[in-house]
Structure of Tripartite tricarboxylate transporter TctB family:
Amino acid sequence: MNDRILGVFALLLAAFITWGGWDIEAPFSYEPVGPRAFPMLLAVIIALCGLWLVFKGGQQMEANPPGANGRIFMMIVYAAIYALLFQWLGFVLATALMTVFVGRLFGGAWGKCALGGVVMGVLFFLLFDKVLDVVLPAGVLGGLV
């Protein structure tokens, strides 16, 4: 039954995303599909997954292992903090910090998580900003990137 409940919530989320994203329009045309395409595509994918869960769900579910619920809650907290600090810190620092803390949640060593965070923040910034030409906030590193 948990799968079907999650499927219904996914369908509601897809409807909310569709409702919220339907009126998105750019003041000028800067790409062929426009800014509405991303939320609509996301809503379709979420709706399809929700339908799958509603119709194919219902298998017996195992309980979460000890500590998993706490990690899930902390992921939500980290995502909220990431969203709040994204503009101020900038993409590179916010992504690096998010990667470090998520890596620690899953048992990674501090050094490996820090290295992975820095590499991920810098490489994704270069990919999005330089290759894909997506403007990302530089934040406190404004003069360096």
